[in-house]
Amino acid sequence: VFKLECLKIKHKANHFALRAKLSIKATQQAYAELQKLKAA
Asked: Superkingdom of the source (predicted)?
């Protein structure tokens, strides 16, 4: 049971990190698009 709980917590943290990475990437892409529009 304890092992399972540890795995769950680990998975949750990993999932959160993955989502954070994705949102950062999306934000960077949106910012790059904005810069392109400003330069145009």
From this structure: Bacteria
Domain boundaries, the chain: 2-39
The helix/strand/coil state of 1 is: coil
Phi–psi pair at 21, nearest 5 degrees: -60, -45
Global pTM reads 0.60
| Residue 3 to residue 18: CA distance in whole angstroms | 22
Residue with tokens 């904005």: 34
Residue corresponding to tokens 């999932």: 15
Which DSSP string do the residues of 9-40 spell out, in sequence order? HHHHHHHHHHHHHHHHHHHHHHHHHHHHHHH-
